[in-house]
């Protein structure tokens, strides 16, 4: 009987311990669940982190996008909002879209990104907006999507002024090869189309080839090399993304054709500026990536506050040559590496 009594005590103690442990586990699980629920505790957010925005670039370590990031972070600090900069390390549409979907699933307050291709990006942007998360497109618009606003270059106009600059500098006579970052990205397509329209009435200008660099120096150089081998008559190049003219310039120097080959590119990366100073690159189209990032964050804050914002805001675009250096203000053109 005594043995049975002790067994009952041990049995009851085990049950009590199990119930206590299970209750504690359920309590902790609930606390974790409640803590991670989007929207919970928003009123308890620190004042300096009133909103949480995500900036998703085409390519994370691209110097052009670093300038966009610098502008966005400056505005975020000024306005007291939290900003994440996250994207593919190298341009990859599938990865880009996956990151956008993850950002939307985490219930951020707003997303800033590109509308690279209508087919892939418009449905994703629409899905995000339907979750009551505003989207501002930067650099490349998705005009048929439900995005709230676009801020950036008028890419058709940028291509057009590049074409006019080449026509003027070459006195209306040139055999031109175009190297574009992407044959499918809408902003690259617009830059090519604008260029074509700008030179189509010039009887002495002929577009010999159009090749794709996939936004890399290496492939831009490879395509330039192949073009010069196949079409030695080419005496002018147009590069539509930030790295194209750099790759082209390396090959032109390799062929010792600096004096007889005209190059116009895009943006003001340090290498581009050095080639411009040397005279290997003759002109480049200047954008305002810092301003895009800075003004996009300010625009997003206005959207969150219910203030109206313009559907399209085009930042300044112009063609510069060696005599226009140095560029000011420097914040638009000088990348600060961590």
UniProtKB/TrEMBL annotation:
GO terms for molecular function: carbohydrate binding. InterPro entries: Peripla_BP_I, SBP_2_dom. One of its GO terms (cellular component) is cell envelope. It is found in: Cell envelope. Its main location: other. SUPFAM superfamilies: Periplasmic binding protein-like I (SSF53822). Residues 53-307 form the Periplasmic binding protein domain. It holds the Pfam family Peripla_BP_4. Belongs to the bacterial solute-binding protein 2 family. This is LacI family transcriptional regulator. It comes from Parageobacillus thermoglucosidasius (Geobacillus thermoglucosidasius).
